[in-house]
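Let us work through a complete example step by step.
Step 1: write down the sequence.
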Amino acid sequence: MKLNLLPLSAVFLVMPLVAQAHMEALSDEDLSAVHGEGIYTLKAGTVSLYTLDTADVGAYAVGSVPLSSIYAGISTRNPALVSKVKDQSLAATNTALAPVTAALQAQFATVPVFGSYLSATFTPVKVVFSP
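Step 2: predict the structure and record it as C-alpha cells.
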C-alpha cells in the first residue's frame, strides 16, 4: 500500500506548478477577472476523501519565492508544459491507484449481500480534476 502512495505524493509535489495565486492588492475590475485553475479531488467511488484547490497552493512559498511566481515563470516560457505535466501526473496517479481499486473490489466481493453495493459506492479510487 505504501508503494502505491509514492506516485500520489509525486503528483502533489507537481501540483504547485499548476497553481496560480499570489497575494496582491487588486482593483474591483481586476478582482472580477480572477479565476482558479481548478480543484483536485481524491475519490473513492462516490465519496470525496480529500480536495485540493490549486489556488490555495499558489499562495505558499519556497523560501521567499511564491509558488505562483514559479508557475508564472514556467508558464511564460513553455505554456504547454504545465498542462502536459498536469495531465501526465494525473494519469500516473490514477494508474498507481488501480491496484487499490482492485484490492477493494476483491475485499468487497467477499461480503455477502452488500458486497456489490459497497463496490459500486467505494470504487474506483482515483484523483479527478475539475476546472
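Step 3: interpret the result. The helical segments are 2-14, 28-32, 54-57, 67-77, 79-109, 115-122.
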